[in-house]
Amino acid sequence: MAQSSRENVLFLLLLTFSATASLAQQSFRPKALVMAVTKDASTLQYVTRISQRTPLVPLNLVVDLGGQFMWVDCEDRTYVSSTYRSAPCRSAQCSLARASGCGSCLESPARPGCNNNTCFLLPDNSVTHTATSGELASDVLSLSSTDGSTPGRATTVPSFLFSCAGTFLLDGLTGGAKGMAGLGRTRIALPSQLAAAFSFRQKFAVCLSSSTSSRGVIFFGDGPYNLLPDVDASASLIYTPLFINPVSTAAAYSQGEPSSEYFIGVKAITVGSQAVTLNKTLLVIDKKGNGGTKISTVNPYTILERSIFTAVTAAFISESAARNITRVAAVVPFEVCFSSENMGITRVGPSVPFINLMLQNKDTFWTITGSNSMVQVSDNVMCLGFLDGGESPTTSIVIGGYQLEDNLLKFDLAASRVGFSSSLLWMRTTCANFNFTSSS
Ligand SMILES: *[C@@H]1O[C@H](CO)[C@@H](O)[C@H](O)[C@H]1NC(C)=O
Ligand SMILES: *[C@@H]1O[C@H](CO)[C@@H](O)[C@H](O)[C@H]1NC(C)=O
Ligand SMILES: *[C@@H]1O[C@H](CO)[C@@H](O)[C@H](O)[C@H]1NC(C)=O
Ligand SMILES: *[C@@H]1O[C@H](CO)[C@@H](O)[C@H](O)[C@H]1NC(C)=O
């Protein structure tokens, strides 16, 4: 009798405790979330750190702007979590994730990544273009909240959906990375899942730092996105529509699946005072999913289909010659390099011709200034950071990481548009200027 009443007291205490805990959780609803992004000096990949599991474990994940969802290595024996749940076949989670298959695992006993009666996804390593199949699962995820100026308290999502993968899928990623953080256009990519978990707008922003020693920032939720000294980087953005590529660009996919990547409508390109002549057919996405322009964080430099590459570099070379900038021998992986001797320096980088990506009308263009076009390869040589994509790449223009650095990109998924700032150096700030000193 005495024992059972003691148990009752304990039970009541536990009940009260968990009720308080869940109330506290509910009463704090963040307006936005923030995470830091570091550029790895050897792979040039952008890496973030997210805490997952119970107890929480910080994981380094490679940021994949167009990635379908978050995937992590579950084969690693260090995956230990009391809150790991595989998604049962035909559950609501499987349909939300549009999980392609349903299966069982032959190993015994069950472990994270290997459970019976679980639906499967096709996680891909978009750096190496390799895919596998992996169990759909959920676990606790923790990120910092923010008021737009500094990080606030940590917030958790109790059942964040992701895919498991085998350890081999990590090959080609930055050392120490445990998976990839997909920010693409699906219902279970980080932006949509976080927006649903905290009932905020389906908006997120990416601001990559150009330095490997200072952190850039990704925000989930609406602005302000404040950078020191007191600049709201979302205040003066130019918007362009996002296009859906009807054919998946992932390494493996099921028939009829659209691409989760972000495509924009580049209609023309100008270099300095020249309009570059381009084959317009290459600029639109055809029925097979070929052509068009996408934005990618897994490609370190912009890649252009060969005829576009040839035309753009020819214009850049002639415009540079007119400025007495001397061309020098190529330096791998670049083809077009110059002596930096006659190159002035401006607030927006080396003084070279601007490259404008012309969008929906003549007043809407994304300007690539010297800070985003020229890559320093030695003391006195700078190269144009664009690569030749060969004769028939799937996507004609892939805007790569170097061209995104110190630019703010704000994705508004409900309105299907992306806002871009062009170089933040014009506004005397950079993506490394978010104040990561916590205010809580
Ligand atoms: C899955 O089911 C099969 C067949 O019933 C069984 O042999 C196997 O041990 C189970 N695996 C797990 C991980 O539960
Ligand atoms: C333009 O590109 C399309 C698609 O690759 C190709 O079929 C066509 O022949 C090209 N046109 C010219 C004039 O090169
Ligand atoms: C380029 O050099 C030539 C010859 O030295 C000079 O006449 C011209 O003004 C220079 N142009 C520019 C843009 O500096
Ligand atoms: C950064 O944020 C912290 C915490 O809110 C604050 O104390 C500090 O003054 C801020 N730094 C700058 C340079 O504004």
Polypeptide structure, described:
With 440 residues, this protein is an alpha+beta fold. Helices cover 15% and strands 35% of the residues. It has a 20-stranded mixed sheet that branches. The two termini are 47 Å apart. The site of one 2-acetamido-2-deoxy-beta-D-glucopyranose has 8 residues, from loops.
Please give the structural blueprint:
Blueprint: H1 2-27, E1 32-39, E2 46-52, E3 57-64, E4 71-73, E5 85-86, H2 92-96, E6 101-103, E7 118-121, E8 124-125, E9 130-131, E10 134-146, E11 151-165, E12 177-182, H3 190-198, E13 203-207, E14 216-220, E15 226-227, E16 231-232, E17 238-243, E18 262-264, E19 268-271, E20 274-276, E21 293-295, E22 302-304, H4 306-322, E23 327-328, E24 337-339, E25 345-346, E26 349-350, E27 355-358, E28 365-368, H5 370-373, E29 374-378, E30 381-384, E31 386-388, E32 397-399, H6 401-404, E33 407-412, E34 417-423
One 2-acetamido-2-deoxy-beta-D-glucopyranose binds at residues 279, 281-282.
